[in-house]
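Structure ticket #2291
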Amino acid sequence: MSARTAAAVALLKGTSPETLDGFLKLSAIFESTTLDPHSRETVVLTVAERNQCHLCVDMHEAKMAALGPAPDAERLAAVRKFTLQVLASSGAVTDEDLAAFEKAGYTRRNALEVVLGIGTYTLSTFANRLTRAA
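Resolution: structure written out below.
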């Protein structure tokens, strides 16, 4: 854990341990989903970039780099696009959006896992920005 990340965690723990606990539990659940690691990191980075959480962007860019090259860049582009569509529509994506996501090799289960990732990292990015950690 980097010094910046440790400081953000300590700040949140000191201010609202319940929020930190909620994030950590949700994060562990998101990590256990059927989305592959590259796809999970793409969801996280998409949310972090959208919410302008520089701490999360830096941390998850490093995590993505540590995973090595993505096996299928087009597939990751599809999960990024779908994540943005879910965010823009508050979950009310079109049938066409869902079909395109599935055509990229994802499932309906994965679509709901994207929603879980969005919720998890919206909590994290908003908390980091509110506490001025990001």
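Closing remark: The radius of gyration is 15 Å.
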